[in-house]
UniProtKB/TrEMBL annotation:
Top-level taxon in the UniProt lineage: Eukaryota
Protein name: F-box domain-containing protein
Record organism: Mycena indigotica
InterPro entries: LRR_dom_sf (IPR032675)
Amino acid sequence: MARLLDLPNELLLSILAELAHTPQELLSLPLLCHRLHFLALPMYFTSMGMGEPTQRAIVQMSNGNSRDSLDALQMASFITSIDNLCCSLPRNGPFEAAETVRHVARVSKLIHKLEFVHEVTIVWAPPNELMQSFEADKDTIACRPLALEMEKLLNCVLEHGCTSLTLQGGMFFPISPRTMRFGTIDAVRTATSKILPTALSLGRNENWIDAQIERFTVEETATLKFDLNGKPSYLSRLNINSSMFLLPPCINWTLSALRSSAISSVSLCGIFLPTKMWAVLLPLIASIIPNLAELSLADLHGLSGTDILVFLTRLPLLKSLAIGYTEYSRQVQSSCPDSAPTPKLENLEHLHAPSTFIVHFLKKKSTLPNLRTLCITPRKLILGYRGLRHIRQFITDIARRLEKHRISPEVTLEMRCGQDMDRDLTADIVEPLGEELARSLRMVTRLVVFLELKPSKMSIAEMGTLARWINRFPGLMYVCLRFDLDNAVEDGVMMDHVRTLSEQNPQVKSFHLNNEAYDPDALLLSSL
């Protein structure tokens, strides 16, 4: 080892680069001496795709005793803060409370080491494992240490200055049948005493509050408590992508975090709850954060369109609102009956929603006087020619209402094309537009197309059909195609597709394929 350390840093780095394909061996070197600590660890982080771990660190923890990226971050003496940290619990193997407790404690240890961490994402379980652990027969005694360790971690994250927290996946705790139905539960007052206003400034009496949260039972598992040891919370954005954090024993911590922080942005996504429980939760959340400025809702199973509208009536200060479709079988959340309330969102500037919600917002007198951008989301279950006909109908309706209310936002249309894209678009192209529809299509300035076909499977003829269909939007300035890229797709294939689009749509000034931008003028010059 002494001879190795006699070498200059340039040669040492060349030798370490040969170990980049075996990160476990590379990670054993920093413990040997101070010099290798500062040479091997940066090489390890680079090999794991973390060139600047102080800015963004992505950790996939592993089972067993082998070291992983979390250990590397822990041992790196030169890392005292992280702007954006994402930690994912191990993906493989059955749920084991003791092993999960160990991994959660490891994350807590890393957070304790740091002076601050601004954005934190914790992936408790990947999406495909979400329902596997949704069981009611788990050992609550074994889960108690896990609840306590999770409480320590979440509180520690906020103590270290976290401003944006994302909680994703996982369902570690048993679901009591009482949680899923109405009933009188005496333990509710104790369980929620720390999240309710002492003076009941909401204008509701104690019986009403108990009725709203009567599902939140105190399980045998320890309830997660919000306690920052007297330190202020700087949390401004909370993204809940996990049903676990809207159910006992985690919900008390979630609601307390909302109440004790200056929350300006909330996202609820990928959550499975009974409809009646949504009716209990949403009014309470709205009462805790009535000054919310940004809200995103997507893939919320069991939540009806009417409940969403009722929720929005309690958030009049929203400036940005995104509503995604939740479609499964033949049930959709996008239904907005005439009897549903129409939220008055006078401060709203950015709206991203299904056409049914947009039409409902624009009923009668306008409730969106300051709207600047409008994005219409696509239906997942309406594809083909039927989907294109659906687009014709709602585009005309929305354009008519915008003109009536004298609102002129920047309009983005999102749409989906299935496997039979060429046939469906060809059938739609031969249909006459009509004067009103042609005028309505002119208002769309941005188009986003989600494609099921892979780029290498699309012929020039199919792309030409898509280009002709896009040409029906004379006001377009931006076009984005989104699809799953082939691993072996060549840049030339992508450029050919963009060139085909730009030749037939000279009015479009910007093309994007997924996240890659293409200059249409440069492509046209290169083809000459």
